[in-house]
Amino acid sequence: MKYPIEPFKIKTIQKIQRKSASERENILTNAKYNVFKIASEDVYIDLLTDSGTGAMSADQWSAIMMGDESYAGATSFFRLKKVVDEIFQFQYFVPTHQGRAAEHILNEVLVEPGHYIPSNTHFDTTEANIRACGGNPVNLPEARKSTSSPFGGNIDLEKLSRFINDVGAYNIPYGMLTITNNGAGGLPVSLDNIRGASEIYRSNEIPFFIDACRYAENSYFIKKHDERYQSQTVEEISKEVFSCCDGITMSGKKDGLVNIGGFLAVNDSELFTKIKNIAVLREGFPTYGGLSGRDLDAMAVGLKEGIEEDYLEYRTSQTAYLGEGLREIGVPVLQPFGGHAVYVDSAAMFPHIPVEDFPGITLSSALYLAGGIRSVELGSVAFAHFDEALQKIVRPPLELVRLALPRRTYTQAHLDFVVRTFGEVLENVETYKGYEITWSPEHLRHFTAEFKSKL
Known about the structure:
This protein is α/β, with parallel strands linked by helices and 455 residues long. It has helices at 21-30, 58-64, 75-87, 99-110, 124-132, 157-167, 191-203, 215-225, 234-243, 269-282, 293-305, 309-328, 346-349, 359-371, 380-383, 412-427, 445-448, and strands at residues 45-46, 92-96, 116-119, 136-139, 175-178, 208-211, 247-251, 262-266, 341-345, 373-374, 376-378, 385-387, 392-394, 400-404, 435-439, 450-453. It is 40% helix and 14% strand. Strand 3, helix 5 (124-132) and strand 4 form a beta-alpha-beta unit. Homotetramer.
């Protein structure tokens, strides 16, 4: 696959330096084999996340200088509000310091112990916020008929209908869709599937929310893969998507192209009043929501840049370039490739390591030791949980390692280096061992858990 030409030129750089093999070994050991604990200056290629790690544009940096730091009613808020109204078209919104804050507020307002919240796949912070309120996150991904299906992020509409009938709509305070589906290879959700979910939720009088942090990538995939929408703009498709739901949680750190920020938007005035009250307690005044005025202005510009189609074409093609490079050397990657990351099946890569020994931690450790590359495990460390009803540990269907590409950050040479590093790991794949957890917290354990290698 040819490398896509960047629709921008580089204006500012940040120096990176590769540590020696012995230094990397000491660093990883001191981090207790959790790459989250490694200082960024000790990382050569950082694919841990695409959340807030991309490069902002000259226009965004210019907007930062216009930031109004007034406590209440800052002009920065109204500039952001104009863009949010234009793209998302909800009646009310409140800014938050990032997406998980929006999730926390939504769940604190709506979820009570014993409630169920269905989705195509809840991601880690969404799932943790639901559990922290006593709720039960339920994943109902559509079974993929073939790996060539472009919309592998869909929710199973038949399962959703059955689930609502089984537990009762009164036990479901809201339903959700994550676009793109980060827990399922970053694959998009079709507009037909979004409409179908909307019809089911609304016929059962269940509020429908979308986790919209990668909505622009999802809308671009709809335009690219559904011929009915190829003449529409990404913004027009996005408006159709959001017309199907009652509200969204948004992390601006993804398709808002900013380092920090997010928001929660709804149409229900009574619900918004409750949201606003909690936001004042947790985040700050409703016109700044835990952000400085300059952050609000940067997000206002970033949201517009995030729906530019030449950028989205480059963005998704760059991800596919890395995925194809890995596939060609024999790395077991999920296909088709999504918009923001390449997902590696670590259990398939290390078939001699049982899932209870966390092959994803084996791979993330191996990549750092071999090349100073930081990735993230999205398998049993991130998503396994103890099910009280079943009285057993329930593991996710796949043991994945995600290689998330920061936006507008890395070049072809960087990605080629990642492929070469994987090649080095593959040459000695049978020598790698599993890991065990020595300590972990109750929620979101992959962020801070500690490990040791199994001998």
